Amino acid sequence: MKNTRREFLKNSALVGAGLSLTPSYGFTIINKPNLSKNSIGHGDFKYRVHKEWGNLNPQTTPVKNCHEMVMDSKGRLIMVTDHVQNNIIVYDKSGKLLTSWTHQMKSGHGLSIFNEGGEDVLFITDNNQRIIKTTIDGKVLMELPNPKKIGLYQERERYRPTETAVAPNGDIYVADGYGSDYILQFDKNGEFIRKFGGKGHQDEKLNNAHGVAIDDRDPNNITLLCTSRVHNSFKRFTLDGQYLETIFLPGAYVCRPVIDGENLYSGACWSRLKYLERVPNSGFVTILDKNNKVVSNPGGTKPKYKHGELQLMLQETPLFHHCHDVCIDEDKNIYVCQWNANKSYPIKLERV
Question: Which residues pair with 343 in a beta bridge?
Answer without folding.
Answer: none
